[in-house]
From TrEMBL:
Pfam families: Acetyltransf_1. GO terms for molecular function: acyltransferase activity. SUPFAM superfamilies: Acyl-CoA N-acyltransferases (Nat). It comes from Paraburkholderia strydomiana. The keyword Nucleotidyltransferase does not apply. InterPro entries: Acyl_CoA_acyltransferase, GNAT_dom. Keywords: Acyltransferase, Transferase. This is GNAT family N-acetyltransferase.
Length: 144
């Protein structure tokens, strides 16, 4: 079973490194995009203040998950999604909504495997590194 842990102010540097790495990998070498940003300074004092300020806001559910490139095709995405669905079930959350870029075929297949359906598509929503990227919204009704 996976464990979800809350971030603390001590986690800021790792969080900033994570986002910097995410931006660097997004769309690289023909891979799908998963961020509309091409670059950002995540380690600025302003970002640190916003990070710490947001930690005081209680969240009833996980809001973001990702599997790093070196861990693809090992079933971790499936485990993360199963954990999110189980969390929603335990906490009486009726729907899980998500957005995914249209070129991320592996993620879309995973979501469909779990029963997510596409409820919206914004063609050419983003221009990232000169490429047109569609934004897809998917949803899953959680059965109680």
């Amino acid at each position: 079973m996976l464990t979800t842990v809350a971030l603390t102010p001590v986690d800021f540097k790792r969080w900033a490194e994570h986002l910097t790495r995410q931006i660097a990998e997004s769309g690289r070498d023909g891979r799908p995009f998963f961020s509309p940003l091409e670059a950002a300074d995540f380690e600025s004092p302003e970002r640190r203040a916003r990070f710490e300020d947001r930690l005081s806001i209680p969240l009833p559910q996980p809001t973001w998950m990702r599997v790093w490139e070196g861990f693809y095709r090992r079933g971790l995405g499936r485990k993360l999604m199963l954990e999110a669905i189980e969390f929603a079930t335990r906490n009486h959350i009726e729907w899980i909504d998500l957005s995914v870029f249209g070129d991320n075929h592996a993620a879309i297949s995973l979501y469909r495997y779990f029963g997510f359906v596409e409820i919206g598509r914004r063609d050419d929503r983003f221009r990232i590194s000169g490429r047109s990227v569609d934004d897809i919204t998917m949803t899953l009704r959680i059965k109680s």
